[in-house]
Design brief:
Blueprint (H helix, E strand, L loop, with lengths): L5 H8 L6 E6 L4 H20 L7 E6 L6 H14 L16 H14 L12 E2 L9 E5 L9 H5 L5 E2 L6 E4 L9 H5 L5 E5 L1 E2 L8 E5 L2 E3 L6 E4 H11 L8 H5 L4 H10 L13
Helix pairs in contact: 1-4
The structure holds iron/sulfur cluster (2 copies).
């Protein structure tokens, strides 16, 4: 049961099925049943939010140890089959083995034909129920983010990206699987996850979540790091015994200038001053 998911269910609905019913039994691990119920609730919420009337996705749970288990199953399936909703618009795309890609193809087809998006005031985004959302955005606290880009390295889905020519954090919402790795990686605690399904075209396009001014080396003016990152580092190390006076000022220099400063500063103690060779 746990090997199927929303990609397959939506593909079935877009291939002519009116309703998908998944049977869960007391023999299945409760965690599997809960995960499937959450995913089914999200899939149904999206269909309803897009204006497709009726219940297209349904889960039936049966206690197989009950003496009348078969009779209950029969009744549940009869009920599920009794009032089928209208079929969804037939899809004309090839389903791939990549679950996320298949889900995206099905979602795009549903968006293209969604009755609610043809209304005078279409919704901008849909709220998603359940504990493990499949789509969503990330919110970055501008007061905390230093644009260190650790979250970019942590993101397994290519949703977070750096920017080639300036310190800026970019995001493609379509790619975000709400795994939370960016949130747990951020050293500043600047990221919050926000489950939702954005319905506008912006969902597929990169947007800047946060950007910082580059820091200019106080010796040669070459840009390195960001103003927020350097100021945060200076604030954290200001009281440290190893970073007083010249050493603290050196943190404001690029790596080349730090070396030059160490070797040209007459106040700097060197290993050769002690007579060791
Ligand atoms: S959100 Fe956190 S990890 Fe990402 S760039 Fe900002 S400070 Fe760094
Ligand atoms: S929640 Fe996961 S997929 Fe989304 S941006 Fe963060 S790391 Fe990337």
């Amino acid at each position: 049961m746990a090997s199927v998911g929303l990609d397959l269910w939506w593909a079935a609905l877009l291939s002519g099925a009116h309703r998908v019913v998944v049977l869960g039994t007391s023999a299945d691990a409760p965690q599997y049943r809960q995960a499937l119920a959450d995913q089914m609730a999200q899939g149904q919420a999206v269909l309803s939010g897009l204006g497709y009337a009726g219940v297209h996705l349904q889960m039936v749970s049966i206690d197989t140890t009950a003496p009348d288990a078969l009779a209950r199953l029969d009744a549940a399936l009869q009920a599920a089959a009794s009032t089928p909703p209208a079929a969804l618009p037939t899809g004309r795309f090839a389903i791939t083995n990549d679950k996320r890609a298949a889900l995206e193809l099905a979602l795009q087809h549903l968006l293209d034909h969604a009755p609610s998006l043809r209304a005078a005031t279409p919704p901008e985004a849909l709220a998603l129920p359940g504990a493990a959302p499949l789509w969503g955005t990330v919110q970055v606290d501008a007061a905390k983010c230093t644009t260190c880009l650790s979250c970019v390295s942590a993101c397994p889905a290519g949703a977070l990206m750096d920017t080639a020519d300036r310190p800026a954090l970019r995001f493609i919402e379509k790619n975000c699987v709400q795994c939370g790795l960016c949130q747990s990686t951020c050293p500043e605690g600047a990221i919050e996850l926000a489950p939702r399904l954005l319905l506008s075209r912006e969902r597929r396009e990169p947007r800047v979540l946060h950007e910082s001014k580059p820091w200019a080396c106080i010796r040669c003016s070459k840009p390195f790091g960001t103003v927020q990152a350097i100021e945060a580092m200076l604030g954290k190390l200001a009281g440290h015994a190893m970073f007083q006076g010249d050493a603290l000022e050196r943190l404001k220099m690029c790596s080349d200038c730090r070396v030059v400063d160490i070797y040209s500063n007459p106040n700097e103690s060197r290993i050769t001053d002690s007579g060791l060779h």
